[in-house]
Amino acid sequence: MVSSSQNENISTGTAIATSSTSNAEGTVTYSLTDADNKFSINSSTGAVTLVNTLDYETKISHQFTVTASDGTTTTSQTFTLTVLDILDINTLSVTLANSGAAIGETSSSGTTVASSSINNPDSDSITYSLSGTGSSDFAVDSSGNVTTNANLDFETARSYSLTLTASGGGTIVTDSFTVNISNAEELESAVLRYTAAYNSASRSGFSATATRGPSGSSLAAYILEQVGTTNTTDITSVDDTTNNYVPVEINSGTALNWRYYFPIDTSGCYACNNGQFIFAPNGNELDGKYYSNLGTAVTTTVAKADILTAGRLEGAEYWFMTTDKAAANISYTSAISGDDVTTSTYNLYEDQVTLAGEVYTDANFTSFTNGNKRVVPMIVLPIENFSASGTSNDYFYPNFIPINFWSYGDVGHDYCSGVGNSYSACTSYGNNYDFS
Hints:
The protein is an all-beta fold. The protein is 0% helix and 40% strand.
């Protein structure tokens, strides 16, 4: 025999064995007995070849008998050919769509994610499946093409590590790949508040260790509060421009249980056009206040001497108030249900900055960066150092706002207002606003 074993994928016509005789008294004729009908023999030369394909999964060995005769003497020999297994499917390869570019979280279900190719020499029937955390958000068809199977959410999962499995002919092969999700910025109206006191030109982002709460305690770096009782992108549908307040629902309340009153002087502003109102520190006679309107009303006044900057911009789409006021705990009624009254505590930051307007809610505000989370700016800041009310800790940078969101209007020589999506004017401290 050429070899006692052969791969199952050898082609028909492959030489299996050769024959020879000695001391023949005449012309030798060869014949073959093959119960499996896999082989043939050349009657003149005795060469045995494969005539029908082998299949390890069907039978792992075949016997055949070669008979030689010279007309006088006949002799036979039996051979066994062992069939070697070859993977029926192999080299599964996944190719991501669009050269591997991230898939937008707003992509519709059925969006193409990846295709696959597989070596299937026996043309076996192939079954595909996906595994990995979040694999139920995707689907794979009978050709190994992967598509989205749900609405994706960047805030829930920014990437998926998946494994495509192909099964066929008793063989299983896999290929792993990663699907990245790109963010779509999502806006909603909210109040964002934090303390101005620990921000400075030398710091980057919100300080994790700054003292900012009552009696030396530390509050969260910032607090985000919902405007209205349901999420909305239109703050003007819930604010009160006549009385200059923005209502919010905080501390798991069931109604609008808190109001921020902004000290807006419509007659003494620096840029009173198109419904935009701004004033500089100590620039009017109005007070601001924090106000609880459920049950027994609670009012905490922010006197004009405690106000650094405040205003209302863009037709009441943006509100801002920056104070020079000590931190405090304010007890108030947060919910009323029948006879049940819930009392909560409002934690006022030291030198609180209160911003109300449209907020990018991406990734739950885990950070503020140019390409990630940010607040639409609505603040006036001093360009030159300004110490309010005899203190020196109030020169702050609203450094959660990226540089590409700066400036609006003319608010006087020493001040710069940030609003909207232009930064044509307020670039003096541009690098301090850039979080790339």
